[in-house]
Amino acid sequence: MCYNPVSIPLWQLKVKPMTNRSSADWLAELRSPTNAESIAELRAILLRGLSAALGSRLNPGQTAVLEDFAQEAVLKVLANLDTFRGEAHFLTWAHKIAVRVAYSELRRQRWKDISLDDLLPADPGVDFTPAALADPSASPEQQTIRQNLLELVARMINEELTERQRQAMHAVLIKGVPMDQAAGLLNTNPNALYKLLHDARKRLDSRIRAQGLTPDEILAAFES
Amino acid sequence: MKFWQRLKANLFSRRAAPSAVRQSVLEPVVLQNLVRSVKQTRPVELSCDECFEQLDRFAELHLAGKAPREALPLVQEHLDACGNCREEFEALLRSLQTLDQPPRDSAA
Fold this sequence. Notes:
The structure holds two protein chains of two kinds. Chain A has eleven helices and one strand. Chain A is mainly α. Chain B is mainly alpha-helical. Chain B has six helices and one strand. In chain B, helix 3 (48-63) crosses helix 5. Classes of the chains: A mainly alpha, B mainly alpha. Chains A and B meet through helix 3, helix 5, strand 1, helix 7 and helix 8 of A and helix 1, strand 1, helix 2, helix 3 and helix 6 of B. Strand 1 (126-130) of chain A pairs parallel with strand 1 (22-26) of chain B.
């Protein structure tokens, strides 16, 4: 059964739609000594947004966490009012913060029990091997080409990338670990991890082209 | 030279696999995702934090139908490359659609 994101209790819906209030007005209200009502309005607006953003992804029993996320987002917004630059409307900025709060926590909970052994060996390293193809719809020639490509790309990964890059790709691309959690496993931060993977992609791009191939040709070989 | 001929020319002798190394299996769908991400790779790309900084502006342009891909191409490229950030962007759009009207500062 899906959670219906529209079924917000009435006492929350009674909040006036203040989306025509300007960013400057929002900032002034939230900074004023009598900001309790504005804070409550903001919390309700963010909760409604989070319900729409996440409601269908949560089990009915989990939806109470949305109120926690909305509350934490409000606190984050209040703590960072001075960083608001006005490049977008205040509410857009606040919703962005709320989405980040929610996803960070959901990803942390989802991945907290992953063991290091399961994902990344302390040592030795990670080597890529091609899968055995089992695609009955492909012609024998197609199957041969695809198998050759799996071998070739696996070899490129092993020869072009550093051990750390292979570990990162194994975690992020193959195991699907979110960036925050993968960065933690690799004892780095998400931005450095992104750069590591970006460099890996650039190296693979150069190697593919150095071999006289293009990414489009490789992809075309795997289309049915 | 045809593609498959160039491919065969590349497959010379196999490198001996070192022992005691964890094998990460390269499935076809993983290869496709990887090669797609290689195809989208640009010399300069934003980090996740840099993309997040501009995500609200990008979302507003998107909702206003103002071609954010052209206005903020680096953000678009990062979203094409980064599943986490793309997921948050799509969630932000869903959030913003609960507002009665797109938020707008009159002086903007």
